[in-house]
Amino acid sequence: VSTWLRLGEIKAEKVSVPKYDESKFKKALYQIRKLTLKNPQEFVREMSELCNTAGVSLILVPAIPRAHVIGAARWLNPHKPIIQMSLYGKTNDRFWFTFFHESAHILKHDKKDVFLDEILNLDLGYSSEEIEANEWASKFLIPSKFVDELPELKSKKDVTEFASKVGIHPGIVVGRLQHDGLIEQSWMNGLKEYFKFV
What we know:
- The chain is α+β, with helices and mostly antiparallel strands.
- The protein contains eight helices and four strands.
- It is 48% helix and 12% strand.
- The protein has a four-stranded mixed beta sheet with strand order 1-3-2-4, with helices on both faces.
- The two termini are 19 Å apart.
């Protein structure tokens, strides 16, 4: 994990970004949310540019064997936050939840802390910061006013129509339904996309 983090630092040090601007970052996140409907070949550059313009370095570093880390958020200095992601797990629901989870750490939590999220621990809520980041990412992707509709989504058609109404990829909705125990883990995985960046 330390090696993976260091690889991210090396990449981040090569990226020139302006001083972090919280207002710009919040606006960028709404634009990035719309990118969930695109494939990596289309969204990666735009996503990185939106983050960079707000002063946040988005760093993609492939997963390292036995380091089950999916994402990290930290500050290299008081003005330069980075979000580092590994693509561990490879599905788009996991990728997008992780990105917005790490974004919540940048927006809400102490600049001195390193927030490291592993695939085995993301749902455990072992700290108030992790619980808050999980809740923020969940609500950002599927706003609270739509949550009551989730138990009614019983088919791929239902999920696709709901995703269209909410404005996100249907794979993200499937991931939420599975996480909340509303459908089996094996159901509707065909609506997810599998990413490969390298």
